[in-house]
Amino acid sequence: MSKQIIVIGAGIVGASLAYHLAAKGAHVTVLESGEIACGATGRSFAWINTSHGGPDPVAPLRAAAIAEHRRLESELPGLNIRWTGALSYGAGPFYAPSIYSAQILDLEPNLKHSPQRACFAADEGALDAVQATHALIAGAQAHGATLLTHTPVLGFQTLNGAVTGVSTATGNLIADIVVLAAGTAIAQLADQLNVTLPIDASPALLIRYTTQPHRINTIISSPQMEIRQDTDGTLLAAEDYIDDALYNRPHAIALRTAKAIEHELHGVVSIMPQMASVGLRPMPADRIPIIGYLPEFNSAYVCVMHPGVTLAAVVGRLVAEEIIDGASAAALEPCRPARFQSPAPPTPPPAPPIDRAGPIPPARQTPLPRSPARKNCSARRRQTSMPVPVLSPRTTPSTRQD
Ligand SMILES: Cc1cc2nc3c(=O)[nH]c(=O)nc-3n(C[C@H](O)[C@H](O)[C@H](O)COP(=O)(O)OP(=O)(O)OC[C@H]3O[C@@H](n4cnc5c(N)ncnc54)[C@H](O)[C@@H]3O)c2cc1C
After folding, report:
1. Same domain, 335 and 210
2. Cβ 43 under 6 angstroms from ligand 1
3. pTM for this structure?
4. Same domain as 71, residue 31
5. How many A from CA of 280 to the centre of ligand 1?
6. Measured in angstroms, how far is the CA atom of residue 37 from the centroid of ligand 1?
7. How many angstroms is it from 182 CA to the middle of ligand 1?
8. pLDDT tens column, 129-159
9. Which residue has the higher pLDDT, 97 or 61?
């Protein structure tokens, strides 16, 4: 008999899970507290960016990301990925092949200050994350899935310690498996099951501009700007969130970034911010995706990661294979949620004879420390051509890993 599965959250991750699970024959119900893609997904720069510096426990997932998006694209034409390639220069290190001045200007003839050398990831691209999430949900529905929007999950139904469903304002729903794909809300949901999952809500800005079409062809990532342009001319920029000061509010950053773009590109004679808003990226505290059954539960599964757009296709397929076929992928092993569980406290040693000046007893094991919240890991830190207010802390290089 096919499994009844509830997916909590209709961002790109929940939508990909719903699609892949439904395609494998599961009876899927997606519960979304707002509209499709109303969370981080709706504010994503959505670059399918597979480069990563340093040791990478999920290198096999990243390495498969492009091929899996291409597979998905052939299954769901509405995904509409633009495979433009990505040009990166300035503060590296970068991991794509190098190209030089003439090739850079061939790709981007409107660059005013073309670097001598850049890295070009020719196989990377970007998508409209909202449109892609709708396409995935429609694909899931074509396989029989049900979507309930404006239906927040309030809690879980349990029986003898097992999760048997969820509760909503309009009633309870039963399921064989409940998948937590609710982005930054996962920590609070897991907490209701007494499972601690350290997930930061990491802010970053997405800005949309109207400007002349065809100013750029690729995704450009430099210390001055991180931009790409849609076919209709809309220019998108990703920027760091700095703080809540008036001169760092989204609109103020959008105006500064517009100046930087005008300074960097020929032919930008008008550039008007249409929208600038902060998205909260669900960021596991150790930066490694959290994917797998919750410790102590074999009917509650969690799936959260950064960068979620890049990894949604490959993770969706692997998770569906794990849940439906019982085929657990080696690539998901570093992602298991059990890594956050405190080890059982050591058995206390036998009490020593009382000696007030005696040795200090061994320290008790403590849970894994949370790494400090990072506020600037989506977009590069960059200097704009506008005078930057004195308090702006934009002095460090990018830590972006989208
Ligand atoms: C400015 C910016 C730039 C980015 N750039 C990139 C990039 O270039 N490449 C990349 O790969 N990633 C990028 N990201 C990150 C990427 O967008 C996220 O990793 C991804 O969208 C996360 O998807 P998600 O489905 O896990 O979460 P979300 O999109 O947040 O979806 C979670 C959903 O769960 C719902 N929900 C929450 N609680 C409940 C509940 N109790 N009941 C029911 N539903 C609930 C929410 O309403 C939401 O719709 C960027 C993000 C931002 C903000």
Report:
1. no
2. yes
3. 0.89
4. yes
5. 7
6. 7
7. 8
8. 999 999 999 999 999 999 999 999 999 999 9
9. 61
**Residue 369 reports pLDDT greater than 50:** no
Ligand 1 in reach of 47 Cβ (< 6 A):
yes
CA distances from 285 to 129, 300, 374 (A): 24, 21, 9
- For residue 194, report the distance from its CA to the centre of ligand 1, in Å: 23
pLDDT over 90 (residue 27): yes
What are residue 219's DSSP bridge partners?
86
For residues 75 and 24, give the distance between their C-alpha atoms in angstroms, rounded to a whole number.
Answer: 14
What pLDDT does 28 receive? 98
Instruction: Find, among 187, 165, 202, the residue nearest to 31 by Cα.
Output: 165
Which atom of ligand 1 is nearest the CA belonging to 304? 26
Q: Please count the structural domains in the chain.
A: 2
The span from the CA of 253 to the CA of 310, in Å, is 26
- Over residues 58-78, mean pLDDT: 97
- Could you identify the atom of ligand 1 that is nearest to the CA of residue 280? 53
Q: Quick check: 359 pLDDT over 90?
A: no
Tokens for 85, please give them. Answer: 């390639």
The verdict on residue 347 lying in a domain is no
Quick check: CB of 49 below 6 Å from ligand 1?
A: yes
End-to-end CA separation in angstroms for the chain: 39
Domain shared by 217 and 264, yes or no: yes
Report the atom number in ligand 1 closest to the C-alpha of 310. Answer: 11
86: Cβ below 6 Å to ligand 1? no
Tokens representing residue 260 in the block:
């930087």
Largest CA distance in the chain: 83
Residue nearest atom 31 of ligand 1, based on CA coordinates: 11
**Bridging pattern class, strands 146-148 and 27-31:** parallel
